[in-house]
Amino acid sequence: MSATQPFVFLGCLELNELLPQEAHDARELLDQIALVPIESIFCHTSASLLRRPVLAEAYPNDFALWVGSEIRDVRLAERLAGVDAFEAGSMERVREELIAIISDHLQHLGAAPPRTQGKRFRFFQIHLVPVPTGHQARTLAEFRDALAEVDVSALFYHTIEARYRSGRGRGDFAEWVGGALGLAELAERLAHIDPHAGSLERIRDRHLSVLTDALPGGDF
Amino acid sequence: MAQGSLVKLDDYRQVAPRGTIDFLMRIGERLRGRRIVHVNASRYGGPVVEALNRVVPILSDLGVETTWEVTIGTADFDQVSRAVSKALAGTEQVITEVMLARLRETGVENARRLQLDADLVMVHDAPPLHLVEERTDAARWVWRCHQDLSSAQPQLWNALRPIIQRYNAAVFSLARFAAPLSIPRFIVYPSIDPLSERNREMTRAEQAVQMDRLRVPRDKPILLQVGPFERQHDPLGVINAYRLVKKHHDVRLVLAGPSPAPGGDVLGDVQEAASRDPDIAVIVLPPDPQVELNALERAATIAIQKPLKADFTIEVATAMWKGKPVIGTIAGGIPFQMVVNVTGYTVETVEGAAFRIRQLLSNPELIGRMGAAGREHVRRNFLVTRRLSDYMALLAHLTR
After folding, report:
1. d(Cα A122, Cα B267) in Å, to the nearest integer?
2. pLDDT tens, A154-168?
């Protein structure tokens, strides 16, 4: 099977901008989360995947990591780690969830929240510049082969950033496989690959595995 | 214009993450015709010059017309520059109005002389800072600060901040090094060049020759700290950690650093402490010791970085690139280069360092595993290919 519209792989350049907002404890973290640009919430939740090492750290977003490692509030860290930016649908919804969790935690704390003795939380925002990688595909086999070769930022752009850009709740890969190739079941399998699985390379491997399973030794 | 190197972007295919080189070429196509000029105050020596030597020709190869200009100044300007750099790094200096005027005059004079016609003008560090006073609005100007400004001398910072705020943006190596500014502040980590003399692959035979030249036997595990023989790099603390380890493991300690400037160093104390132990080697490195350090880092079993105060300390990444676990303090950029408990350990005390060294020596498989994880971590985050990408992102973002 060949698609009329080829899939054009885009990678992305990233530029990290340091914002003036900082936090030394959970109360300040709450105040600043309410204030920072929405791109900053994206930077510290979904986009933390761009920086995740091959062996994933304990928690999947920067807020939970900082609360766990710097102010050593494991209970709050675990609750923040539970915020699923990929399920939430929008970054504003993620912001609301973060605010609700920290507010509730502070209400039940009964004492002043502990302050960091080490690193303060510094807020960033991320600027992404999409750039064509030069790879495109019309068949599933071409798609798999290109996916194995592209810069890892293409995985981020098409599986993570796309969810917010398009507002569809699933990435570009699943959308193209389901729409242009008409492979609805395979599209569902791609859409359900867990972005929390680890690094972007691991997400690539999961995609390749699913695609290879769907290719019984020949082209579609 | 400074001379470039013969290394081509294609040579990095063997070491960069998959897809990276092709992607850089695509980015270059998109930015083709745009121009960057880098300006600094020196053509020779130091990590900024090393990086520019590599970055400038490769960016040009990619289609981004990139040049490198160097400011010139009188001997008293060089003195002022050194004092200003020290004061920005937090070492108290006497900076007079006359000195500030010299800094400004030299900057303005150079601005009239240098070829600064570009889409992006990137000015490195404080000495050429005043170039921006002669800027035209056509270009975007970026101040690239490689120093830690977190404890800059307040009076000097107050004098320089209005000048810096005439730039369109500032770039720092770490968030903790950045000072408050009203312009956008971006973070670009330093990087290592995997094809440089310091980091290129080295045969065992060549390594052996270098180690023999440095008179370091390879008969037992080697603990290595590379860094200046200064109190803030705590070489004596490293010796004390080694002594705690030595009760349990037969190891050798190598402390290697540049020849210290007179005053303020602890080389004499280090040599005295090492004089009664043949398993401690204190090596005062020759100028430009790239090959020597390459050999030492490859021969090491564990790399140590135990400064009390530090800059980015890219030596962490250079050791990790050679597959070595790193035991480091939380000073400067050290913890930002490591994945703690995966590529090495952070410690705060002599005892902590000794404990982690013993832990690794008792678990050789952990040394291999951490070393391999460290090399991969550097491959993805601290190679010069990533810096090229960051600079092109800056160009794309600021000139969009």
Report:
1. 38
2. 999 999 899 887 777
Lowest mean pLDDT among A212-216, B194-198, B211-215: A212-216
Assess contact for B309 and B232: CB atoms under 8 A: yes
ipTM score of complex: 0.90
pLDDT at B4 (0 to 100): 44
Mean of the pLDDT values across residues B299-306?
98
Chain B residues lying within 8 Å of A131, measured CB to CB: 23, 26-27, 30
* One-letter identity of residue A189: R
Q: What is the pLDDT of residue B1?
A: 38
Q: Is residue B102 scored above 90 in pLDDT?
A: yes
Please judge whether B339 and A53 are an interchain contact, meaning their C-beta atoms are less than 8 angstroms apart. yes
**Local structure of A135: helix, strand or coil:** strand
- Shortest CA distance from A17: residue in chain B: B186
Contact with chain A for residue B389, Cβ under 8 A = yes
Phi, psi of B293 (to 5 degrees): -70, -35
Of B22, B373, B394, the CB nearest to A55: B373
Residue to test with chain A: of B21, B22, B23, most A Cβ within 10 A: B23
Binned at pLDDT 50, 70 and 90, residue A112 comes out as: confident
**φ/ψ of residue B339, rounded to 5:** -105, 105
Q: Which of A13, A134, A149 sits opposite B396 (nearest CB)?
A: A13
Q: Which residue has the tokens 């930022």?
A: A153
Q: How many residues in chain B?
A: 400
User: Does B187 contact chain A (CB < 8 Å)?
Assistant: yes
Sheet with A7-23, side-by-side order of all strands:
A121-137, A7-23, B185-187, B169-172, B140-145, B120-124, B35-40, B65-70
d(CA B243, CA B350): 10
Residue B137 pLDDT exceeds 50: yes
Calpha distance B42→B70 (Å, rounded): 6
- Report yes or no: B342 at the A interface, CB cutoff 8 Å: yes
Q: What is the pLDDT of residue A179?
A: 94
pLDDT of residue A216: 75
- Host H or E run for residue A96: helix A91-107
Residue A206 tokens read as 């999961």
B175 → closest Cβ in A122, A127, A150: A122
Mean pLDDT, range B82-102, rounded to an integer = 95
**Distance of residue A111 Cα from the nearest chain B Cα, in angstroms:** 29
CB atoms < 10 A from the CB of B346, how many? 19
